[in-house]
Design brief:
Layout (H helix, E strand, L loop, with lengths): L1 H22 L3 H22 L2 H11 L3 H5 L5 H4 L9 H13 L1 H8 L1 H22 L11 H14 L4 E6 L1 E6 H21 L8 H19 L23 H10 L3 H14 L9 E4 L2 E4 L7 E2 L1
Antiparallel strand pairs: 1-2, 3-4, 4-5
Helix pairs in contact: 1-2, 2-6, 6-9, 7-8, 8-9, 8-11, 9-10, 9-11, 10-11, 12-13
């Protein structure tokens, strides 16, 4: 029975990620589904297994610094995909950050780099907790290190981006405000624990580790990504490379001051025109028109 339930958990974690990768869908959204489905399977564990078997499941997955030092290196990763079944707010809080902040960050980084950044944050949190609790048998679990890594990476790369987030009100907030709010709150909570010796079951050190390592690694991940920020149309000097859409390009330059209007005209141009190099279809990605067959053929404007 335990083997079946463990296999179900593996499928719940890997399934959404594999499907997303194969279909070139959002890997950040897939990660939120992986954590949610994995948590649901954990609840099934609690309903069907006795204490001894349930403890055996968690012993294979959560991270104890003493066991990491003894060779259980895999728990640095697996611990990031399980959460406390008695604290649904734990997984919910991580999912909110990964979904609302992680998806816009994926638009900036791309799927592969985003997944790399996520894993760097996860490892940063796990390693920081292991170092800070050398020899301890106290287990750690959860994707909080990775979630804080997302905040750190986004703060480093595009701090002025605005994303929808439930910070007092559900509205668009600057990434730098969200990230610094969370980081500042963690500093305060860590001071209460380590400075005032208050009891806490939250791995604040892991949060710092994920945030700082992902922040530091972002410049390397960002290397090679073309800057695709807001481009003023008056600064565009390249001529229209397409045929049959002169009127659309003219309207774009006349009416494209607003981001939404500019995107609408670019979508229309991409739909009606074709690649001037190979004649393939075009696609609009991050406010730039690209060749659907070869991204090096055209990048406009």
């Amino acid at each position: 029975m335990e083997e079946v339930l463990f296999g179900l958990w593996i499928v719940a974690i890997i399934g959404p990620l594999a499907w997303s990768w194969y279909h070139k869908a959002s890997i950040a959204m897939a990660m939120t589904l992986s954590l949610l489905f994995g948590y649901i399977v954990q609840l099934i564990w609690g309903w069907t297994l006795d204490y001894h078997d349930l403890r055996g499941m968690y012993d294979m997955l959560w991270m104890r610094p003493s066991e990491v030092e003894g060779g259980q290196i895999h728990t640095l990763i697996t611990s990031g995909f399980i959460h406390s079944p008695w604290d649904p707010l734990h997984v919910l809080g991580n999912i909110i950050i990964i979904a609302l902040v992680g998806i816009p960050l994926e638009d900036r980084l791309g799927r592969g780099r985003w997944l790399t950044s996520y894993m760097i944050g996860l490892l940063g949190g796990s390693i920081a907790w292991t170092i800070a609790n050398n020899g301890s048998y106290t287990p750690a679990l959860g994707a909080s290190g990775a979630a804080f890594g997302i905040l750190g990476a986004y703060l480093c790369g595009w701090p002025e981006d605005e994303v929808y987030f439930p910070l007092i009100l559900i509205r668009k907030w600057p990434v730098q405000l969200i990230a610094l709010f969370y980081f500042g709150f963690e500093i305060f909570k860590a001071w209460q624990v380590y400075g005032l010796s208050q009891v806490s079951h939250v791995a604040h050190i892991a949060h710092f580790g994920g945030f700082i390592l992902a922040y530091a690694a972002l410049p390397l991940l960002k290397r090679g990504i073309e800057w695709e920020g807001e481009v003023e149309l008056t600064e565009i000097t390249q001529e229209n490379p397409f045929e049959g859409v002169d009127e659309l390009v003219k309207r774009l330059r006349e009416e494209g001051d607003e981001k939404e209007t500019r995107q609408a005209w670019l979508e229309e141009i991409a739909e009606r025109a074709s690649c001037p190099v190979c004649g393939s279809n075009l696609q609009l990605k991050k406010m730039r028109i690209r060749c659907d067959s070869n991204k090096f053929h055209v990048l406009w404007p």
